[in-house]
TrEMBL record:
<keyword id="KW-0006">Acetoin catabolism</keyword>
<comment type="pathway">
    <text>Ketone degradation; acetoin degradation.</text>
</comment>
<dbReference type="Pfam" id="PF00850">
    <property type="entry name" value="Hist_deacetyl"/>
</dbReference>
<dbReference type="InterPro" id="IPR000286">
    <property type="entry name" value="HDACs"/>
</dbReference>
<dbReference type="GO" id="GO:0045150">
    <property type="term" value="P:acetoin catabolic process"/>
</dbReference>
<dbReference type="InterPro" id="IPR023696">
    <property type="entry name" value="Ureohydrolase_dom_sf"/>
</dbReference>
<protein>
    <recommendedName>
        <fullName>Acetoin utilization protein AcuC</fullName>
    </recommendedName>
</protein>
<comment type="similarity">
    <text>Belongs to the histone deacetylase family.</text>
</comment>
<dbReference type="InterPro" id="IPR037138">
    <property type="entry name" value="His_deacetylse_dom_sf"/>
</dbReference>
<dbReference type="GO" id="GO:0040029">
    <property type="term" value="P:epigenetic regulation of gene expression"/>
</dbReference>
<dbReference type="InterPro" id="IPR003085">
    <property type="entry name" value="AcuC"/>
</dbReference>
<dbReference type="InterPro" id="IPR023801">
    <property type="entry name" value="His_deacetylse_dom"/>
</dbReference>
<dbReference type="GO" id="GO:0004407">
    <property type="term" value="F:histone deacetylase activity"/>
</dbReference>
<feature type="domain" description="Histone deacetylase">
    <location>
        <begin position="21"/>
        <end position="314"/>
    </location>
</feature>
Length: 390
């Protein structure tokens, strides 16, 4: 078994929604530069993706939508299917650029399915809002759902998807809402307070799949300890019961307190702890198989590069100590391009992520979310929602 797979090629920077759009590919470029400067990628062969073909895109999307995406740059702004909006503007070669993102996550999935690696990471992936017949939330094609669908046809029939982006993982949930082979778990800011307005704890899956959609909506301004307390109170128990063969995680970092698109209050230290927790869960409950993709994250300079460097380091078992200073080469690159940028000094925000486990009767606002989700989901998995040992 070789070392984990890292998918990256600068051609992935072509997924560029243009202008002042917040989904700016510079965040990926700065992440790879930072990881490289820190030695995280030393000796790692970066896997170069190719674009996914229609056969794969049609696993999740309908033909009319593919045609609309292909035609959009020629047609103008009024093309329907959620395209040409402020969120999802039409951009040159958008079909090819998005198909490449899908191909990059598929390549990571293929490496795991072929048994070449147990873990793979693709920070360019994570377009979790894209729907069957329309673009949504900066996402054109849903690489996460397409890769999961492909894995279901290549040796896997129990896949757990865990989404830690600040927004609800609605597109992936929708793709498998009635499929008991896929467990989708989403931790996000409460839909009352944040787009897309879904992800209530009562959304549990349909028919035979009841219990296979898990939603943990958290109050705005939740900090690392509260977030981790909620995660710990729900996710490990459900994974233990579900017994996945593979863990797929969408690792959006727009939950950071400096992110301009949302109102959660996590830190880079919280993100780092999330990644090591996901790694532990993959080892314990998913035969060590872990496919990690990126996602949202709009603090392009101060947050995304550090958090996703920690993600890649965690996947590679090359954990970067939080106090590690930012390397001078990276700092001068950023200062050259953005002289006014206020850069952090180290790979930490200096936050303590220690948390109290649920069941201690503490009066924490996230406990309402924990209780609601456990009561909605746990009985469907033979677990006691009110017993902290479950
Ligand atoms: Zn997001």
């Amino acid at each position: 078994m070789s070392s984990p797979a890292v998918v990256w090629d600068p051609s992935l920077l072509k997924y560029d929604l243009g202008g002042q759009h917040p989904f700016n590919p510079v965040r990926l470029d700065l992440t790879v530069r930072l990881a490289t400067e820190l030695g995280v990628l030393d000796g790692v062969d970066l896997l170069v993706p190719t674009a996914a073909g229609d056969e794969e895109l049609l696993r999740v999307h309908v033909p009319e939508y593919l045609a609309a995406v292909r035609e959009a740059p020629n047609v103008g702004w009024d093309v329907g299917h959620g395209l040409g909006t402020d969120d999802n503007p039409v951009f040159p070669d958008m079909h090819d650029a998005t198909a490449l993102v899908v191909g990059s996550t598929l390549l990571a999935a293929r490496k795991i399915a072929d048994g070449e690696v147990r873990r793979a990471v693709n920070i360019a992936g994570g377009l979790h809002h894209a729907m069957r017949d329309h673009a949504s939330g900066f996402c054109i094609y849903n690489d996460c759902a397409i890769a999961i669908s492909w894995l279901l046809d290549h040796g896997f029939d129990r896949i757990a998807y865990v989404d830690t982006d600040v927004h609800h993982g609605d597109g992936v949930q929708a793709a498998f809402y009635d499929d008991p082979r896929v467990l989708t778990v989403s931790m996000h800011q409460h839909p009352f307070t944040l787009w897309p307005g879904t992800g209530y704890s009562a959304e549990i899956g349909k028919g035979k799949a009841a219990g296979s959609a898990v939603n943990i909506p958290l109050p705005p301004h939740t900090r690392d300890p509260g977030w981790l307390r909620a995660f710990d109170a729900v996710v490990p128990a459900v994974l233990q019961e579900f017994q996945p063969q593979l863990l797929v995680t969408q690792c959006g970092v727009d939950s950071h307190e400096e992110d301009p698109m949302a109102d959660m209050s996590l830190s880079v230290d919280g993100h780092r702890t999330i990644y090591s927790t996901l790694r532990d869960l993959a080892e314990r409950y998913a035969n060590g198989r872990w496919l990690a993709v990126g996602g949202g994250g709009y603090q392009l300079i101060r947050v995304v590069p550090r958090s996703w460097t920690h993600l890649m380091a965690t996947v590679l078992d090359r954990d970067v100590p939080p106090e590690t200073p930012l390397p001078p080469g990276w700092v001068s690159t950023v200062q050259g391009a953005a002289p006014a940028a206020d850069l952090p000094a180290a790979m930490t925000d200096g936050k303590d992520t220690a948390f109290k486990r649920w069941g201690d009767d503490a009066d924490d606002p996230v406990d309402i979310a924990i209780r609601d989700t456990r009561r909605a989901i746990f009985p469907l998995h033979g677990l006691d929602p009110d017993d902290p040992r479950d």
